[in-house]
Design goal:
mainly alpha, ATP binding, two-stranded parallel sheet, about 80 residues, Rossmann fold
């Protein structure tokens, strides 16, 4: 595989895209269930992966957060394969 050093900018950008920029210095254990779900989705896209597998990414999200997540996924699909289960 190829080694990719993740920059602080890349992490901040991804957290901003999923609505977690204000939680940058928080531990995952202190996030709500929906915020943890967003964090796991954001982590899947770090490193510009060409193929991303997501298992029920909107499970446990309220309707507003679910819509935001699906909009994020639509934005991130360009140049990638996203497999949803």
């Amino acid at each position: 595989g190829q080694y990719h050093a993740t920059s602080k900018y890349e992490i901040e950008d991804m957290l901003s895209k999923v609505g977690l920029a204000q939680k940058m210095s928080s531990y995952a254990i202190n996030l709500s269930g929906g915020q943890r779900r967003k964090l796991s989705v954001a982590c899947a896209f770090i490193g510009n992966n060409k193929t991303v597998f997501l298992d029920e990414p909107s499970s446990g999200l309220d309707p507003s957060a679910r819509r935001e997540l699906w909009d994020f996924l639509k934005d991130m699909r360009h140049g990638r394969t996203i497999l949803l289960t």
